[in-house]
Write a structure and sequence with these properties.
six-stranded mixed β-sheet, 23% strand, Dipeptide-binding Protein, domain 3, 2 domains, globular, 25 strands, single chain, disordered N terminus, 27% helix, seven-stranded mixed β-sheet, 16 helices, alpha+beta, D-Maltodextrin-Binding Protein, domain 2
Amino acid sequence: MAHSRTARRRWTAAIGLTGVAVLALSACAESERGTDDASGKTGGTLIFGAAGKPKNFDPIFNDDGESFRPIRQMYDTLITYKRGTADLAPGLAEKWDLSDGGKTITFSLVQGAKFHDGTAFDAAAVCFNFERWFNMKGAAAQSQMIYYADIFKGFAQNEGDASGTPLYKSCEAKDANTAVLNLNAYSSALPAAFGLTSFSISSPEALKKYDADAVTQSGESFAYPAYATEHPTGTGPFKFESYDKTNNTITLVRNEDYHGEKAKLDKIIFKIIEDENARKQELKAGTIDGYDYPSPADFKSLKDDGFDVLIRPAFNIMYLGINQANTPALKDIRVRQAIAYAVNREQLVKTKLPEGAEVATQFQPKTVAGYADDVTKYPYDPAKAKDLLKQAGVENLTLKFYVPTEVSRPYMPNPVDYAAAMTEDLKAVGINVETVPRPWNGGYKDDVQKFGKHDLHLLGWTGDYNDAGNFPGTFFGRSKPEFGFDDKALFDEIAAADAVVDATAHADAWKQVNRNLLSKYLPAVPISHSPPGIVVNKKIKGLTPSPLTDERFDTVTKD
């Protein structure tokens, strides 16, 4: 992948869209607005089948696709992505400038935008949001700010598990239309990460009125304030109307005061249907207009039945995670290597994943700078797996394998099936497996990511922006309950790679990180990269599939 920067940080990056397309990531971008549908039709209601319940509707307290899908229709970010690409494009910032070695970012903001409560969007509102995130109080609230912790490292006062040194320094509203962000250090994640849905800009007045920061924790459960559950207030093309938990529907309505081109639809209803087969049947019955992540096995039949199956490029990774904290044997890299050799990833990709899926050899796609062709590889070799277990002196090893249910993710359309195949592979080399199924938004993610109850788990990631820091850097850059190890040498190596400014040296540093991850550490087993689909009926036009799964419905029309 070509990746170059000048002193003004003009970026170019490659990502597979139709082959390998070059996407310009410009530090000084001009507005690109418009619609993907020239029909001019307006009105109607889109009913979209959602695979799971939202966690809540406050962007900063989320890292989940089922929450992000409605959130990104209601909110805008400072920077966004050109439709169908990972190319940075203007959002609430018409342009942005980097200076002082990337430690100062000046945003020139759109004028005339308003939040859904009628209050003005301006530089003071931008700085209010940054200050809110940085000064967030309480271990419960901080623990829910996954993306903030990964990008900005630390808080004004770290509580709970937060321990990093803050990247954020200050924000100044130079005038109503100019916000200046000052950082303590350069980060290769910025400015691209400002397109993350978590960093959507909320109304300061609504945040204050509805006590937005009052997140509480009781045992393993989190409760969110009224802002997050009943009054999400952004600047986006759709506004929140209701979340009917009895009928499992989320209703959004068009924002008639939107500052850009107004949405064509009158309304969006997200109908929560947790069973994939039920979503398919409702699509065929006409009670929903589309749903995300159809099973790869259904692609052909859906097309034959007259539906449009839109395929996104594979910009993701599925991995088999290993938690070293609970079972002493997993601290031995030979045992982790045995697990890697035991899993028949080639067969899994060939028989259970969609056409175009590939076996992953490392924790990032090939199209991201830092991919190393010469990493240690773990082809299917059950004999070698058994030998490694013997060398480690491990017998009668029993592992708790946590598996997500009631979910279909872009990198794992059917996790229960994949886990079943992996379980059989592990049993074949002498590893006993206790499967623990948990609902995706009903305990699974907290069990795995917050409380580390598991030994093995299935998870993955769809890239948010085109940098290795968003893949292996996000997974392994700090100690996490998900993986249960604390290795300062690895964390320092990742931090050093992220801080390299020169493009070639930046890529080389990440290549070495990837080599070491697979040979020296092996904290997880990379499984696959998969091209996910989204299916709609023929009445729906103007929906552009995104490699980032960042689909926006404001351009959609319904006949």
